[in-house]
Every structure is written in structure tokens, then in C-alpha cells.
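Exercise 3.2. Students should predict the tertiary structure of the chain below and write it as C-alpha cells, then compare their answer with the key that follows.

Predict this chain's 3D structure.
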Amino acid sequence: MGDKITSAGALFPDAAIDQVRGKQFVLWQGSQAQVVPAAEYGGHTYIPAALSPSLEKVLHLPAAIEDFRSLEGLIGELSEGVTSCDVGLDQHATLLVAAGIAATWVTDCVPCPLVINLWGDVGVENTLLDFMGCVCRRALRLVEPSLRELSGLPTGLTPTLILTRPSKPVLSRLVMAASGHFFARGEVINLQSPIIVYTSQPVQVPAMSIPLPPATHAVRRITKLEAQKIVDRFQPRLLDYRLKNYQEVTNAQFDVPGFCPEVRQVARVLGAVVQGSASLQASITDALRGLNEQRKGERSQTAAAVILEALLAASHGQAPRAYVGAICDLANGFLEDRDETTRLSPKAVGEILRQELGLVPRRRALGYELALDVGTQRRVHHLAVAHDVLELVAGCPRCQEMAVAIPRDSQPALGI
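Answer key:
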């Protein structure tokens, strides 16, 4: 018997353990599952974490494990559960929420923890949050949690954090902490928690944005008895999904290169969640197109996008360099042509070039100069695609490169 390690769960190359109700583990090994009081692996003895009765109850730990049967069936039933909340989500949004619920069960296997932002009129979110609290993995509904408090949770717990109208600083810190490591009480903590956040307006952090339609009828809450039935129906099957699929999810290579960076990351996560089902991956991609177009539209109207348009004009004019002052004049000209009242200063343009676009002008006798060498031109073109402002120009080598790299259905029109 080796060292004793207290944990709420762990994934290994050929086995996995996950804590269930009653301070026990489900041990998954050799395609077989069994409930055990402790587990041996790699010369260590794993002991279930000591959870207070109140915490165990709030987490809705499953009591056992049950065959989830198929990805399509599981996602379909989750979608039906979302629909039963009667919040008026369309088919695409319902699928995204259902896949997002499944993502909370493999958050330690996907590229990054998912952030789901439900937003709309106050009150319309209640039933859906009740349902998600029953089916998301180890859901914790919290008010303004601190990183110090979260760092005290047992190793391997990786709860789903459900927040209602948190302050912007708290949400920003949690999103940053969930995506990496942070120090707390002299230890390195890896939170890895998915976040579901309800707000009245869309959040300003990267998230899968789900607008909630205005309520046209009385909003019903899920009762305790109904909640327990939902827990008992879904949790054992979602646990089975986690233990059977974590390796496939970890090794998934799903990607949608034509999406803007923020939505592309969401697609990578949700596509990995349903790895093995090409039809679900295609449906998720279709469901995300609306969010992608929205994000691209938002990015194309930023100051950074206008500056990129100015840099493209200089690059397509075969200028060897561009001065910050000239870039500023071009950008302001574009804004004036669009009847925009905003105007940029050379100082603001310089800061955006450095801090947002990663382009560093050099001080010269005539001002700050940005060399438009091949490397810089490539970066400008790539950034222009991400901000949805690239118009392919015939005869431009960089545009020809982008035409090869961009998926055909995402290519901008070819200009003259």
C-alpha cells in the first residue's frame, strides 16, 4: 500500500475514479465500473474527500453509475430537459446549452473550461438555472465567491460555478483563474471550473452567449422533489459518459478554423465533448454560426479593426513602411466616410498597435514607423481575417496565402 491521497476524483491513462454519494468512488478500469470505498493506482491509495453533509447535498453527487447508451440520445434528452424549462430558446440555443451541460462533466479534458453566459430580463433565468444546477457536474450556486474560498475545496472536485449577476471584477478574476493556475495559501491551484453566469446584459469576458427571450408567461421554479428526480435521472448517466469518454474527449482534434477566435474556442470545446458523433459536431457548428457572425460584426467595428483596414491599404499599396501618424489619418478617414463621430489620436493608434495587435512601431526621425515587411504583412492579414475586415486583393501575395488558408465558405470576396 502506497501513500494515501485524498481526492474527489482523478483521471489516469487507463483508469479513472470519481467520488459519488456516501463517500465512495466509482472506479473505472478495463471497461468495467465498480463502487469502492478507496482505490489503488500507481502505488498510491486514493481516499474519497470528506465532504460535509450540506456540501454533498448541494453538489448533487450521483449515487451510482448507469449506461448513458449513446451521445445522440444523451444530448437529445438534455435538450428535451432544457426545452421543458419553457424559457423559449430556439433549437440552436437549446443544443448549445445541452452540449454545454455535458461539457461540465469533462472540463478537465477540454482545451479550456467553458463559460456560458445566459442573459436577459431578470426572472426568466430561474427555471433554466434550476435545471442546470441539477444536471451540471457538481454545481455550486454561489454569491461573489473569492479565489481563496474556492482554493479550499477538495482536490479533484472541479465544481461547476453558477453565478447570478456577479460584479465585473469577481467574474473577470474567476474566468482568468479557471483558465490557468493561481497561488493561494502558498500552493499552486488549478481550479478548472466551468462557469455559468446569468446577467441582464452580455458579459464582456469570452463566453458562449445565450440570450434569453422575454418572459411571456409566469416563470415556474423546479420543486425539490422534481429536482431530485432530475438528478437521479441524469447524473448517473452523465457520470458514465465522463468515465467512458474522457480519453476520446482529451484526444479530440475538432476545430472550425473559419470562426473568429472566441467562438472557435467554444466550438473546439463543444466539438470535443461530442467526439465520435460527426452529426452532433456538424449541428453544433451550425448552431454557433449566429454567435460567430455577431462576434465578427462586433470586432469589425472596433478601433483595432479600422486601424487594420488602414494597414491593409498601406500594404496593398506596396508601401515599405507606414508611420503611425499616416495610419491614424487613414483610419480617421474611414471613420469619417462611415459618418462615425469617433476620432483616433496618434497616441491611441500607437497603443492599439502595441497592446492589441502585437505590432511595434520604431521611433525614427520622422516619427514612429512600422516596417511593412513580409512578416508584418502576414500578421496584418491574419488579424484582418480575425476582425472580419479583409477583402482579398488580386495580385497581393499575402491575400493569396490567406485564400489558401481560409476555408472556402468563410472566404471574403475577391476585390480588384
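Discussion points: Confidence is low (pLDDT under 50) at residues 411-416. The longest strand covers residues 15-20.
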